[in-house]
Design brief:
- This protein is an alpha+beta fold.
- The protein is built from 8 helices and 41 strands.
- The strands form 11 sheets. A 6-stranded mixed beta sheet has the order 37-36-38-41-39-40, sandwiched between helices. It has a 5-stranded antiparallel beta sheet with strand order 6-5-4-1-7, with no helix packed on it.
- Strand 18 and strand 19 form a beta hairpin.
- It comes from Metabacillus sediminis.
Length: 571
């Protein structure tokens, strides 16, 4: 009997030993999310700066919160990993705070920044849901399938229902003029037939490609011949009987009210034209006697306005800012007060054009003024030249080389600053300022990509660049070392380095480490005038904080720009 009891007990112990034990500590599913606030942020292996780096997060990325420890939060990272972030560098959000949007169009382009000038980083398919990060003007910042970027707000809906209802409302409208028009799967008569639309059917024009238009109608989409689609409403369009004056130096006339419409001709400043129709931000004109076509309303001054100052119709179009930190003023003068500041790529509705200033509508309903040379027409590009614009940079080809990129992160600071991201930020500011001065700017990279050193050099040599500027941030084992250094290799580079360094120090008041000879590939193998600039030390806590500020960035790029002006004025 005793042996049987012992045997039963042993069997029970063996049986229970085969059942997986519950772990001593199991982390619950995240109930909150942490939104990254810095451009880059080191995610550490433990709750403190002394711990190693587990991963690097990017601005506006969101991660589940697993645990909180005083000033640190434990995050749920991709690949079944975890890591810790400082609470003052993230925004903790409850599930109710996470907002979403839906795509109301097929394959909406996701861009790197808020504007059509930014690179495409992915697509947002019709009906799909994405996390809403923020809105800026007519652009919406989203996170979708691991991609963070910007889409036009017109293609973002608050629900699937809204998404479907708005399908036929987006884009320019039009109607079918043929008795029955074939709808095809691609912009080609050889593509498969999807169906047909009848005369008078209202459609939304989604895209233009050659002689084809992609349209949306009755919840469906497809391609049709543009010859049988009339822009606007089916009702008779009003003939204005007005005349107007062209205010742009040179203005393209198109065969349709769209920036992708074919060119019908050109009109020049002060040319008188007949205004036939006005539709949204477009005006149909008669020019050269009998020719007709469409132009941007922003650059046609109706003769009956009776004002020499207010040269654009109300709600005549939109502008896009060229640079970050653009001053928006209370009146059309550089001496007026600054009421707001805009960012590069941000768009605003134009109310009028007063001399060389755009009168715009701000998001909060106020009106303000932007200097014409600091913005560009959202559809046609920059058209207003700055009074007394520098002739020394006009037409010059400048290659900007943002150091590192992709798998090559460069150095990093204790606060999480990654060199490759900071050089990209600086390059963006510099590109905007140089372009506003009339320079032709080439970037060796425009996103987080690894570019070989020889390719960077070739970008300058193949274009016979007038100057090559490689941007970097330094590091030293001595954390007290601060300041900036400009390096050259050839004598042509030394001539460029001297004025650039002088203006950099004057504008930033950084510690001056001088102009030095440097044996770096991008300047050593470069036959064009070339320099490499170390703009500060990320190993210095003080320098790291300084170089991350927008004021430093703007002062630094202004210094480089002024230095280039000085250099070219001496040639």
């Amino acid at each position: 009997m005793y042996k049987k009891i012992v045997s039963a007990a042993l069997c029970a112990i063996l049986l229970f030993s085969l059942i997986p034990a519950e772990p001593f500590y199991a982390e619950a599913a995240p109930k909150e999310t942490a939104k990254i606030l810095n451009d880059t942020l080191n995610i550490r292996k433990g709750p403190g700066l002394s711990y190693g780096i587990e991963a690097i997060a990017r601005k506006d990325e969101k991660y589940g919160v697993l645990e909180k420890n005083k000033e640190w939060v434990k995050l749920d990272l991709p690949g079944n990993r975890t890591g810790w972030a400082a609470t003052w560098l993230v925004e903790i959000q409850s599930p109710s705070q996470v907002k979403t949007v839906y795509s109301n169009a097929e394959d909406v382009r996701i861009r790197k920044g808020p504007g059509t000038g930014h690179a495409i980083v992915g697509t947002f398919p019709y009906g799909k849901q994405a996390v809403l990060l923020k809105k800026e003007g007519e652009w919406t910042n989203i996170s979708f399938n691991g991609i963070t970027g910007w889409i036009s707000s017109r293609y973002a809906s608050s629900s699937i229902k809204d998404s479907k209802e708005k399908t036929d409302l987006k884009g320019p409208s039009g109607y079918i003029t043929a008795t029955s028009l074939n709808v095809r799967s691609a912009p080609s008569s050889a593509s498969s037939l999807l169906g047909s639309v009848t005369k008078g059917t209202k459609v939304a024009i989604l895209k233009s490609e050659g002689s084809w238009l992609r349209i949306s109608y009755s919840g469906k989409t497809g391609w049709v011949s543009r010859d049988f689609v009339k822009s606007g409403s089916l009702e008779s369009q009003i003939k204005t009987g007005k005349t107007g004056i062209v205010t742009a130096a040179s203005l393209n006339v198109r065969n349709a009210p769209s920036p992708t419409g074919g060119l019908s001709g050109k009109v020049v400043k002060n040319e008188q034209v007949s205004i036939l129709e006005e539709k949204n931000s477009w005006t149909k004109i008669r020019f050269n006697g009998s020719q007709t076509g469409w132009v941007s309303s922003l650059y046609i001054k109706a003769s009956e306005t009776g004002s020499q100052q207010d040269t654009a119709p109300k709600n005549s179009g939109a502008i896009r800012l060229i640079s970050d930190g653009t001053n928006i003023r209370s009146s059309a003068s550089v001496n007026s007060s600054v009421i707001a500041r805009g960012t590069a790529g941000q768009t605003y509705t134009v109310l009028s054009l007063q001399n060389d200033w755009y009168k715009i509508k701000l998001l909060d309903g106020r009106t303000g003024y932007v200097a014409g040379w600091l913005a560009e027409d959202a559809e046609f590009g920059k058209t207003v030249n700055r009074p007394g614009e520098s002739k020394s940079l006009k037409g010059k080809t400048i290659v900007i080389d943002p150091g590192h990129g992709g798998i090559d992160g460069g150095t990093s600071g204790s606060g999480g600053t990654l060199e490759k991201s900071l050089t990209m930020k600086t390059a963006g500011y510099l590109s905007g300022e140089l372009q506003s001065e009339g320079a032709n700017v080439v970037m060796t990279r425009s996103s987080d990509l690894y570019i070989s050193l020889s390719s960077r050099v070739n970008s300058a040599q193949s274009r016979s660049a007038d100057a090559f500027i490689s941007l970097h941030y330094d590091s030293s084992s001595n954390k007290a070392v601060r300041g900036m250094t400009v390096y050259y290799y050839h004598s042509s580079g030394q001539k460029l380095a001297l004025p650039v360094k002088e203006e950099l120090i004057k504008n930033t008041r950084s510690a001056d480490r001088g102009v030095r000879f440097g044996d770096y590939h991008v300047i050593r193998e470069n036959s064009r005038p070339s320099i490499l600039i170390e703009l500060g030390y990320l190993s210095s806590i003080t320098d790291e904080m300084t170089v991350n500020s927008s004021s430093f960035q703007k002062n630094a790029v202004h210094g480089i720009t002024e230095g280039l002006k000085d250099y070219f004025s001496q040639q």
